[in-house]
Specification:
six-stranded mixed sheet; beta-glucosidase; hydrolase; alpha/beta; Rossmann fold; binds alpha-D-glucopyranose; TIM Barrel; 3 domains
Length: 746
């Protein structure tokens, strides 16, 4: 009794302390707000990019610095490093009320240490590895004077024409929600204000991944049902994880720009979800509402944005230039501005910046943290877990480390910059391990390696083919490195053609014609189409953009020091014409039953409906057997759960990890339901010969969906339970019946 009682007292003490702390911050915010002029309040809503605020003298620099000294700026982006952030913070300390600046930056996959791109890390399905990656990025950023990262990007996307698919967690809402939560917790750590944590930012709110035609800055037209069912849950997961800020997005949603969208920012985010953080616009997106034709001029754009809940203005200067007048004209209430200012000041207090504006600007800590070599080991670990083994005919991989004549061929064999991908902070490439270096590091003097570039990534010359083919003929095994250059995916990198560029696939065919075994390693920021390689290569690794430790991580897999465990977080189409394509498709009224008979079926006359590689696909060097599926009951009353148990056996010769996936199909419902939806997964490590009972629990939440009235709940009927190693490779299945439904307010 004593122990429980003391635990209760401790818990109450902590809660009371937290509430007291929150109270005191709210009181401090209110006291400060009372002292602020309207101009100073508007200043807090103004964010400038600081590319010119340090460095050579210029008029821009002078103007920026004088606005900061006048207290007309609340935050800077793109100022980094202790030296520069301290210098600029000192300018802010010259202002009347000495309100500190927030320093923000796009730390998307690493600051000093470049980690794999987010889509690659999503392929690890390893939430702890993903959290840790974000934590190291936060630790390095915070040591370099950064308070706030514009990450995680949590946009669900089923369109690989969209270059920003590289920044997210892929196509699935369930996986994307868990990853959103892991990344927020990684960035924000134990507590905001700690010097190994930064504010996270859930972006782009909302549904940017559904841009028409896969083009950036374009419109999004979605049913409310799809918005709530598919695109909002990762944002809600970020809110539940305590995300400090949101960023809205360039797209319109059903005709209203997200930046000026009351439904999104006020009704849903700050209303239904009761969100207390603040929303920053995307770069210039307030002013872009004029270009959209949603506002006559920047004054009206400012009015619509602030009234719709967009608190901070990134780089359009609409708030700084027009809010004062809009308030005088009673088009914007000062209370709306006060609410936005409160939200921003609250975070500055929470970070401890009023107590010490230079808390994050410590030169010694910066030097120590940014040179911590343990970060590379963490980067290498998550990189190898992100590699997906797509194909491995006759168990060609892993390769023997002994005396092997290797031909390394392709435009990405010696590349360094490409492994960092886009959205990077540290542009130095000296520390990046190329594939060539990774293999040399692994094999040392034992290996006989011949290298030929063969062709460039985009050029149409085949001049290098002869040398490549000759080296292939002299080798035991050929390893080819093909794919995208770092600037082919990312923002403003939409493509109509996601096939391999240039003569890369022709180079593969020329090399394969030698009859030698060929391992193809594909490196890219998005799913690519490579049908010849998929058909003819002996082994294929999808290595995305793996960051600084790419070469070492790929070599770990190639030579068996790590048994690959990655699973695709996104579907790979056979052709662009299939897009949008995802695993959770609907049955339609005329599904293909037999691929030979497609007349009057929901089919293409020139391609199968199936993808080249499915969501959840990823092979191992070992073999996993699934058996003995048992459900705890086959009939459920409302609110009850059903336990799912099966046995996983590693009956291959290598130890390894398997991501076992649980899918459900709601057989009949008031709205049509997908053929399958991912509802749970776990990553299991088994020694060769080892077996383990795996358990899942299917609760009411996993049976629920939004019905046509957007009510959240489960409906009575039959459910198909599927356990698989991929969405298109179901190993076990069973059924249960929900006897009565339930509708809850969510
Ligand atoms: C960009 C991006 C956004 C980024 C911001 C600041 O245009 O859309 O994701 O955080 O501007 O760089």
């Amino acid at each position: 009794m004593n122990r429980q009682f003391s635990m209760l007292i401790l818990f109450l003490g902590i809660s009371v302390n937290a509430i007291a702390q929150q109270k005191s911050i709210e009181q401090r915010v209110d006291s400060l707000l009372k002292l602020m002029t309207l101009q100073e309040k508007i200043g807090q809503l103004n964010q400038y990019s600081g590319r010119q605020v340090t460095g050579p003298e210029s008029k821009v620099k002078t103007d920026l610095r004088s606005d900061i000294k006048n207290g007309w700026v609340g935050s800077m982006l793109n100022v980094k490093g202790v030296k520069d952030t301290r210098e600029i913070q000192e300018l802010a300390m010259e202002s009347r009320l000495k309100i500190p600046l927030l320093f923000s930056l796009d730390v998307i996959h690493g600051y000093q240490t470049t980690f794999p791109i987010p889509l690659a890390e999503a392929a690890s399905w390893d939430l702890e590895a993903i959290r840790l990656s974000a934590h190291i990025a936060a630790k390095e950023s915070a040591a370099a004077g950064i308070h706030w990262t514009f990450a995680p990007m949590v946009d669900i996307s089923r369109d690989p024409r969209w270059g920003r698919v590289m920044e997210g967690a892929g196509e699935d809402t369930y996986l994307g929600s868990l990853i959103a939560s892991a990344r927020v917790k990684g960035f924000q750590g134990e507590k905001l204000g700690n010097t190994d944590a930064v504010m996270a930012c859930a972006k782009h709110f909302a549904a940017y991944g559904a841009s028409i035609a896969g083009r950036d800055y374009n419109a999004v037209d979605l049913s409310d049902h799809q918005l709530w069912e598919t695109y909002l849950p990762p944002f809600k997961a970020a809110v539940d994880a305590g995300v400090a800020t949101f960023m809205n997005s360039f797209n319109t949603l059903n005709g209203i720009p997200a930046t000026g969208n009351q439904y999104l920012q006020r009704d849903i985010l700050k209303g239904k979800w009761n969100y207390k953080g603040f929303v920053v616009s995307d770069w210039g997106s307030i002013g872009e509402m004029v270009t959209w034709g949603y506002a006559r001029d920047n004054a009206e754009a400012a009015e619509k944005a602030i009234n719709a809940g967009s608190d901070m203005d990134m780089e359009s200067r609409a708030y700084k230039n027009y809010l004062h007048r809009l308030i005088k004209e009673n088009k914007v209430s000062e209370s709306v501005v006060d609410d936005a200012v409160r939200r921003i000041l609250y975070k500055k207090f929470e970070l401890g910046l009023f107590d010490n504006p230079y808390k994050f600007s410590d030169l010694k800590r910066e030097a120590k943290v940014l040179s911590d070599v343990s970060h590379k080991n963490i980067a290498r670990d998550v990189a190898k877990k992100s590699i997906v083994l797509l194909k491995n005919e006759s168990a060609l991989l892993p390769l023997a480390k002994g005396k092997t004549k290797l031909a390394l061929i392709g435009p990405l064999v010696k590349s360094k910059r490409d492994h960092k991908g886009s959205w990077i902070v540290n542009t130095d490439t000296v520390q990046v391990v190329s594939l060539y270096e990774g293999i040399s590091n692994k094999l040392g003097k034992k290996a006989e390696i011949k290298y030929a570039q063969g062709c460039s990534i985009t050029g149409n010359s085949q001049e290098g083919f002869e040398e490549a083919v000759n080296y292939a003929k002299q080798s035991d095994v050929v390893i080819m490195a093909l794919g995208e250059s770092w600037d082919m995916s990312g923002e403003a990198k939409s493509k109509t053609n996601i096939h391999l560029n240039g003569e890369q696939e022709a180079l593969f065919n020329a090399v394969k014609a030698t009859g030698k075994p060929v391992v193809v390693i594909l490196m890219a920021g998005r799913p690519l189409i490579f049908n010849d390689i998929a058909a003819k290569a002996d082994a294929i690794l999808y290595a995305w953009w793996l960051g600084d430790e790419a070469g070492n991580a790929i070599a770990d897999v190639l030579f068996g020091d790590y048994n690959p465990s990655g699973k695709l977080p996104v579907t790979f189409p056979r052709h662009e014409g299939q897009i949008p394509l995802s695993y959770n498709y609907y049955n339609t009224g005329r599904p293909i039953k037999n691929p030979k008979y497609i007349t009057y079926k929901s089919a293409y006359i020139d391609s199968p409906n199936t993808p080249a590689f499915a969501f959840g696909h990823g092979l191992s060097f070992t073999n996993f057997e699934y058996k003995d599926l048992v459900l705890s009951k086959d009939k459920l009353n409302s609110g009850e759960s059903v336990k799912v148990e099966f046995t996983l056996v590693n009956n291959g010769k290598y130890a390894g990890e398997e991501v076992v996936q649980l899918y459900l199909k709601d057989e009949v419902a008031s709205v049509v339901r997908p053929m399958k939806e991912l509802k749970d997964f776990t990553k299991v490590y088994l020694q060769s010969g080892e077996s383990k009972k795996i358990n899942f629990v299917i609760n009411k939440e996993k049976l629920s969906f939004y019905n046509n009235q957007l009510e959240w709940g489960a409906e009575p009927g039959d459910f198909l339970v599927m356990i698989g190693t991929a969405s298109d490779d179901i190993k076990l299945q069973s059924r249960f019946t929900l006897l009565e439904g339930n509708v809850s307010d969510r």
